[in-house]
Amino acid sequence: MKPKVYIDGKEGTTGLQIYDRLASRDDIELLLIDETKRKDPDERKKLINAADITFLCLPDAAAKEAVSFVEKDSARIIDASTAHRTAPGWAYGIPELSAAHKYAVVNAKFTANPGCHASGFVIPVYPLVASGMIPKETPLTVFSLTGYSGGGKKMIAEYESPEKPELYNTPRIYGLSLKHKHLPEMQKICGLDIPPVFCPIVDDYYKGMAVTVMLQNSMLKGNPTAKDIHGALAAHYDGKKVIKVHPFGYEDPMIAAGTMAGKDSMELVVNGHEGQTIITALFDNLGKGASGAAVENMNLMLGFEETAGLNL
Ligand SMILES: NC(=O)C1=CN([C@@H]2O[C@H](COP(=O)(O)OP(=O)(O)OC[C@H]3O[C@@H](n4cnc5c(N)ncnc54)[C@H](OP(=O)(O)O)[C@@H]3O)[C@@H](O)[C@H]2O)C=CC1
Ligand SMILES: CC(=O)N[C@@H](CCC(=O)OP(=O)(O)O)C(=O)O
């Protein structure tokens, strides 16, 4: 029998993107809610318990409510919201981080899909902290360029409105409280003593991200060069299908944030010299930053090839 899959919040930005990746697959059965009942708690509860896996593509409060609906042992959850990313008992959905992370996802009842900015930070930083190259007490900084689809339906409507304010044509820095909701997962998953200083920037294009971490090499163990750091990342992600480490350096003098738009994979680009290193994670906020990652996690949880249905 084919595994049954339900998307709670299918009409939203992330939900529609997951639907697009699953609609043509014949190895799963998609359960669809009656459109007039898509926010009806009883109907959603019925489908969550009828499904083998439910994707939650909802605001945090609705995601928490959906988890409270789970009754059957067979019902498993992949939550795209921020609600459970540091919660006990939840697997963190970046299986490439380590064998233990992959094992946790494969066997999870509950998987938290990572935040988009967080993915671009955690994927380069986790292995460097785990190996000791970045001491866990290092004060890191990170900035992230994102397309406006990262803000969901509301932000998409603002950017695509004829009344769009003139200054929305230029990049806008936000998260100025320095308390962005992705900071807890960045710190916890990487095992850092303190969260990084994080500056997100949204710009007037639909999708694609460039998340950049800058390092003073003298703060790192053994005073590595940028090439050493590149070598450590290339070794860690060697053979991975969804995460690629670009050969050291970059062929163009500039890196465009939209380079990986439309893809479900991520590319890490390392530049620098003996004294300083700059690492940029290039990916799509709707791909490895959300829906592509969610489908990859589903594939692992259901025993499929992890890249099934993905566009690498
Ligand atoms: N956009 C992105 O790049 C990313 C988003 N996420 C996260 O994924 C989740 C969904 O985000 P996104 O798709 O962007 O958001 P959207 O606002 O685009 O979509 C959310 C959807 O949930 C529906 N919804 C709201 N409340 C309920 C409810 N009680 N029951 C059923 N459906 C409900 C909304 O309905 P209606 O259509 O009526 O508004 C909407 O269709 C969020 O938690 C977000 O933080 C994570 C990573 C990246
Ligand atoms: C442009 C924009 O607003 N992006 C969102 C992040 C999107 C994402 O990863 O979302 P969740 O953590 O909600 O899952 C933000 O920075 O809050």
How would you describe this structure to a colleague?
The chain has 312 residues and is of the alpha/beta class. It has two domains: 4-114 and 290-302, 3-Layer(aba) Sandwich (Rossmann fold), CATH 3.40.50.720; 116-289, 2-Layer Sandwich (Dihydrodipicolinate Reductase, domain 2), CATH 3.30.360.10. Helices cover 31% and strands 20% of the residues. The protein has nine helices and 13 strands. It has helices spanning 13-22, 41-50, 60-68, 99-106, 116-130, 152-160, 183-190, 226-236, 287-302; strands at residues 4-8, 29-31, 53-56, 76-79, 91-92, 110-112, 141-147, 172-173, 197-203, 209-216, 243-245, 266-272, 276-283. Bound molecules: NADPH dihydro-nicotinamide-adenine-dinucleotide phosphate and N-acetyl-L-glutamyl 5-phosphate. N-acetyl-L-glutamyl 5-phosphate is lined by residues 80-82, 115-116, 146, 150-151, 155, 181-182, 200, 202.
Annotate the secondary structure layout.
Blueprint: E1 4-8, H1 13-22, E2 29-31, H2 41-50, E3 53-56, H3 60-68, E4 76-79, E5 91-92, H4 99-106, E6 110-112, H5 116-130, E7 141-147, H6 152-160, E8 172-173, H7 183-190, E9 197-203, E10 209-216, H8 226-236, E11 243-245, E12 266-272, E13 276-283, H9 287-302
Parallel strand pairs: 1-2, 1-3, 3-4, 4-6, 5-6, 7-9, 11-12
Antiparallel strand pairs: 7-10, 8-9, 10-13, 12-13
Helix pairs in contact: 1-9, 5-7
Bound molecules: NADPH dihydro-nicotinamide-adenine-dinucleotide phosphate and N-acetyl-L-glutamyl 5-phosphate.
NADPH dihydro-nicotinamide-adenine-dinucleotide phosphate (NDP) binds at residues 8-9, 11-15, 38-39, 57-60, 62, 80-82, 115-116, 149-150, 152-153, 285-286, 289-290.
